[in-house]
User: Which sequence fits this backbone?
């Protein structure tokens, strides 16, 4: 099983790992595109106003540009510890036992505008680049990433659960993946997509799937793992699509 998480705009600082080595990351076939994007991002950081505009940042966020400038020299830490925010907080990663962390490292991956896709343990520095960003030297990221990223993700033989958000799902289509929609259900059975608590519930589901001793291999298994964690996953009329039904 591979659970594909969205990244987060916010990243933790520092780290005690060596400088970024693109060739050492998982899915090495993505290295050429990673190198293109990383090189363009670092070069862009030489022009602070242009960086702020391209990354949709305010002048108060110039430190994000400084992070990009130091991309190849800054210390690294595992991707699962680098990304922060609501979804990652909901996963409660620091509470994982050693056995649970080993399972999480094997089962979790993170979509990334800079790296395409990462395994949870891949060491990366802090950076700023979103899926919707347009780098002046390269243009929109989707045409750049889509061919290689779709090829890579299409070769994943395991059960693939896609929790990506819109901008990152747009970088590559994964027809065989199982998608999860967070919804509420009214008394008459009508369902409505949840936006406010979406990330928190996806984080709870990801944690349950990442740490369960028995790895699910079917949709029925996914539903069972979710139920054990107090979450309600249900099938929908759309193939390979499940609803995570929550109480408003």
Assistant:
């Amino acid at each position: 099983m591979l659970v594909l998480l969205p990244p987060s705009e916010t990243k933790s600082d520092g780290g005690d790992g060596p400088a970024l080595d693109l060739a050492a990351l998982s899915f090495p076939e993505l290295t050429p595109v990673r190198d293109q994007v990383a090189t363009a991002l670092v070069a862009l950081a030489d022009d602070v106003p242009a960086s702020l505009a391209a990354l949709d940042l305010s002048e108060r966020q110039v430190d994000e540009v400084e992070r990009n400038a130091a991309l190849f020299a800054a210390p690294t830490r595992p991707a699962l510890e680098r990304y922060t925010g609501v979804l990652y907080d909901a996963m409660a990663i620091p509470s994982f036992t050693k056995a649970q962390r080993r399972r999480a490292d094997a089962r979790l991956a993170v979509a990334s505008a800079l790296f395409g896709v990462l395994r949870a343990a891949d060491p990366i520095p802090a950076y700023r680049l979103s899926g919707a960003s347009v780098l002046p030297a390269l243009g929109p990221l989707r045409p750049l990433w889509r061919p290689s990223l779709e090829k890579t993700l299409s070769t994943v033989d395991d059960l693939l659960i896609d929790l990506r958000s819109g901008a990152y799902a747009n970088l590559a289509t994964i027809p065989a993946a199982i998608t999860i929609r967070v919804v509420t259900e009214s008394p008459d059975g009508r369902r409505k997509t949840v936006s406010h608590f979406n990330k928190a519930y996806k984080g709870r589901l990801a944690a349950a799937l990442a740490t369960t001793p028995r790895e699910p291999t079917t949709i029925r298994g996914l539903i069972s793992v979710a139920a054990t964690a107090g979450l309600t996953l249900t099938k929908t009329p759309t193939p390979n699509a499940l609803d995570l039904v929550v109480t408003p």
User: Anything to note?
Assistant: DSSP finds ten helices and twelve strands in the chain. The chain has a mean pLDDT of 96. The longest strand covers residues 178-185.
